[in-house]
Amino acid sequence: MRQYQNSEIVDAVIIGTGAGGAPLMAKLAKAGLKVVALEAGNYWNPPADFATDETEQNKLFWTHERLSAGNDPLAFGKNNSGIGVGGSTLHYTAYTPRPIPDDFYINTDFGVGHNWPFSYQDLETYYDELEVNLGISGPTPYPWGPDRNVSYPLPPLALNAAAQLMERGCKPLNIRTSPAANAALSSAYYQEHIGWRQACTNRGFCQAGCSTGAKASMDVTLIPVAIYFGAEVRPTSFVTELLKDNFGKIEAVVYKRNGQLEKQLCKNVFLCAGAIETPRLLLINRLANSSGQVGKNFMAHTGLQVWGEFDQKIDPWKGIPGGLISEDMHRAPDADFAGGYLIQSIGVMPVTYASQLARATGIFGEELRERMRHYNHVAGINMHGECLPYDHNFLELATELDEMGLPKPRIHFSNGENEQKMAAHAKKNMEAIWENAGAKHVWSINRNAHTIGTCRMGNDPEQNVVNSYGQSFDIPNLYIADNSIFPSSLSANPTLTIIAVSYRIADAFIRNN
Ligand SMILES: Cc1cc2nc3c(=O)[nH]c(=O)nc-3n(C[C@H](O)[C@H](O)[C@H](O)COP(=O)(O)OP(=O)(O)OC[C@H]3O[C@@H](n4cnc5c(N)ncnc54)[C@H](O)[C@@H]3O)c2cc1C
Ligand code: SF4
Asked: Is 55 part of any domain?
């Protein structure tokens, strides 16, 4: 890997190497720019470092303390953010549906939330490109959304037991289903500058880190491409400060590595640290906040899960966790809420299942042990729904300091009436599906997933932190490219869109510089 000196003024410093940072690295490096990516976490070697053991993977979670407030305080750690070269994609489940075009216009359609400053059509060629770059397995044609320009590069993965049961339960209810699109390879796949990646072996540990490289986390896809074209990835480098020159531009990034502070000089900075750390860094450094919107507009997808026990053996740890999908509720005709949701079959590891069961039902001791004896017979369905932005949901700095000596972030979150109605609608549907599939002991857990918003993009500098190309309205050489800039949450899982937006930001930057 090429290495740059801290004293060399590189074209771009990218902070964070997840779904937002890695695509930028690849595009900017390919365009011949000098790129250094600073990443707080380690650079893992999946076959050696990722054991087939759920608890072994705790090292992939961002565990610096975050404070949670509000009526529905969010769980962090394994629930919604990762650390390491590859970011949260190291432990994402790899569900990759595209949004549907009207997702981008929630305000036009329902009079709530915020529209995006561009449309699905503006991202379409980027979706086409990145699905090939990641090796997405999925069905063509796909029942929902516009016809595709190009087929998915690989056919869908096999349906595991939970997916087959969901399919069985949906049929009598006339709910359409389809094998889902997944960022995991249904057969071996050759990629330029990467080589052969092997097919998914169905070991089901996607959320715990894929040791075979079949899952398209950024460390095995776009980051090797970036390195091939001359980018440097600097792991265990925790950014604490962005320094301005006399003209108000960022001239250097300060980071801590091996206990020492270092300073990388640069012409441009791309903040891709995710929807909690990106606004936290801006607030700590008092940057880019003339709109007063840094930390505001926080959203977390509505993610209720319904679980059931079946007579047959399921082995919920086996196979791609998210095999089957239905988007029939994207705009449900009987909806009493704005926006919509999709439903997905899900897998689960035993420790996660036990802790969710205890939290949701309050059982413990012998009763919990008895239910866990049936672990190999459980299957779940998950909803993934639009979350609206509210004034009461935001991130602020607390007075308490973390282990780096920086103010901890405090995240306020309460579901609104819209999210409660949507979750109730989904619960009724998912319970009916499990009843039709023959489930016993059905129980559910209310959750919210993903961190979205906090540095909104838009056209009006008074209402937004960055423009539609991720550029700060206040500091011309500061860009943001991660899930913090989403104006609305979309009802589809976010990663595909984070990458597409990052590609769009990179292309615009290359064009203009
Ligand atoms: C368990 C789980 C399952 C998921 N499943 C899916 C799914 O199936 N489909 C889907 O679409 N999405 C899924 N997601 C969400 C998806 O992983 C994230 O939305 C996406 O990775 C966010 O991209 P990002 O670039 O904004 O942030 P991240 O990918 O989190 O990257 C941010 C990076 O910045 C680094 N960083 C932060 N602060 C600093 C700092 N100060 N200095 C240096 N580096 C820093 C972090 O270490 C991290 O590597 C899942 C997430 C989780 C946690
Ligand atoms: S199920 Fe497939 S993609 Fe997921 S961890 Fe296992 S091999 Fe990797």
From this structure: yes
Residue 305 Cα to ligand 2 midpoint, Å, equals 21
CATH code of residue 375: 3.50.50.60
Peptide bond into 141 cis (omega under 30): yes
Per-residue pLDDT of the chain (513 residues; tens, 9 = 90+): 999 999 999 999 999 999 999 999 999 999 999 999 999 999 999 999 988 888 888 899 998 889 999 999 998 877 678 999 999 999 999 999 999 999 999 999 999 999 999 999 999 999 999 999 999 999 999 999 999 999 999 999 999 999 999 999 999 999 999 999 999 999 999 999 999 999 999 888 888 889 999 999 999 999 999 999 999 999 999 999 999 999 999 999 999 999 999 999 999 999 999 999 999 999 999 999 999 999 999 999 999 999 999 999 999 999 898 899 999 999 999 999 999 999 999 999 999 999 999 999 999 999 999 999 999 999 999 999 999 999 999 999 999 999 899 999 999 999 999 999 999 999 999 999 999 999 999 999 999 999 999 999 999 999 999 999 999 999 999 999 999 999 999 999 999 999 999 999 999 999 999
**Residues 6+ positions from 411 with CB-CB distance below 8 Å:** 66, 67, 68, 69, 70, 74, 276, 298, 394, 395, 451
Does residue 1 form part of some domain?
A: no
CA–centroid distance, residue 61 to ligand 2 (Å): 18
How is the chain split among helix, strand and coil, in percent rounded to 5? 30, 25, 45
Out of 450, 491, 503, give the residue to mutate to test ligand 1, the one with the largest number of ligand atoms within 8 Å of its CB. 450
Residue 424 CA, ligand 2 centroid: distance in Å: 32
Tokens 């359609």 sit on residue: 109
pTM of the model: 0.97
Task: Return the H-helix or E-strand segment holding 379.
Answer: strand 378-385
DSSP H or E stretch at residue 433: helix 417-437
| Ligand 2 close to Cβ of residue 182 (< 6 A) | no
Which of 504, 502, 508, 499 minimizes the C-alpha distance to 130?
A: 499
Structural domain tally of the chain? 1
Cβ neighbours of 336 (radius 10 Å): 11
Q: Is 129 exposed, middle or buried (0-12, 13-18, 19+ CB in 10 A)?
A: middle
In a domain, 400, yes or no: yes
d(Cα 30, Cα 14) in Å, to the nearest integer?
A: 15
* Residue 89 belongs to domain spanning: 12-512
- Residue 3 covered by a domain: no
Tokens 């940057």 locate to 287
Token pair, residue 415, equals: 């579901």
